[in-house]
Amino acid sequence: MHAIWCVAQKELKDGLRNRWIIAITLVFALLSIGISWFGAAASGIVGFTSIPNTIISLASLAVFLIPLIALLLSYDAIVGEDEDGTLLLLLTYPLTKAQLLLGKLLGHGLIMGISTALGFGSAAVIIALFAADVDILALSIAFGRFIVSATLLGVIFVAAAYFISSLASEKSKAAGMALIFWFLFVLVFDLALLGLLVATDGQFNPDLFPYLLLLNPTDVFRSVSYTHLRAHETKA
C-alpha cells in the first residue's frame, strides 16, 4: 500500500506542477456557475431555478466534458513514461506493475476528485449564498451525490486511457485513440442505439435495451443522476 501511495503522490504532484488541477477546477467552476445562473436564460429566467434543473443541466455538461478531460489527463500515462525513459526506471523500484497502475489510478483519481469537488462545489456555494429559499441540506446532498458520480465517471475513463496508452507505441497515437474512444462512447454509442430503434420501428427487444445502456459509462452516469433527482422530487 505504501508503494501505491508513493506513486499516487508522484502523479498528484505532477498534476499540481503541470497546472492540471487548477485548469480543470477553473473550467468546471466557470461552466457550473454559468449553467446554475444562466441555464434558463432562453426562457427569460436568470438566476437559480431549482436543484433538479441545475443538476440535470450540470449532468448534461459533465457527460461530455469529464470523459474528455479524464482521457486527456492520462492518455500518456504509460506510453509517455516509456518514451521519456522513466517507465523502465520505475519498474526497477520495489513495486509490481499492478502497484504502479493502481498508484497512477489513485493519483489521477485524486486529481479528478479534487477538481470536480472544487469546480462543481463552487456552484453549490454560490447558490447557497445568493439564492433565496434554498434547502441547504437538500442542496448539499444533491451536489454531493453528483460530485461522487462525476468523479467515478472520470476514474472509469482514466482506466480506459491506461488501456489505450498500453496499446499505443507513441503519445501522438495514444492521443488520437483517446479522442476516437471519447467520440465512440460519448456521441456514437447512443446514436447507434437510436438508429437501431428507428431501423426496427421500435420493435427492438425492450428487455435488452437497458442492458445495452449499461455498456456505456456515460449512460450509467446519466441514469444514476436522474434516479437521484427523481428520489429528491419524490421526497419533496
Describe the structure.
This protein is globular. The model has no long low-confidence stretch (mean pLDDT 85). α7 packs across α8 (171-199) and α7 (136-167) runs antiparallel to α10. It is mostly helical. It is built from ten helices and no strands.
Brief synopsis:
The chain has 236 residues and is mostly helical.
Element layout with pairings:
Layout: H1 2-17, H2 20-38, H3 51-74, H4 79-84, H5 86-91, H6 97-130, H7 136-167, H8 171-199, H9 209-213, H10 217-235
Helix pairs in contact: 1-6, 2-3, 2-6, 3-7, 3-8, 3-10, 6-7, 7-8, 7-10
Percent of residues in β-strands = under 5%
N-to-C terminal Cα separation, in Å? Answer: 44 Å
Average pLDDT works out at 85
Q: Specify the biggest β-sheet.
A: none
Q: What is the alpha-carbon Rg in Å?
A: 20 Å
User: SS-based structural class?
Assistant: mainly alpha
> How many strand units?
0
Low-pLDDT sequence parts: none
Descriptors for this entry?
about 240 residues; mainly alpha
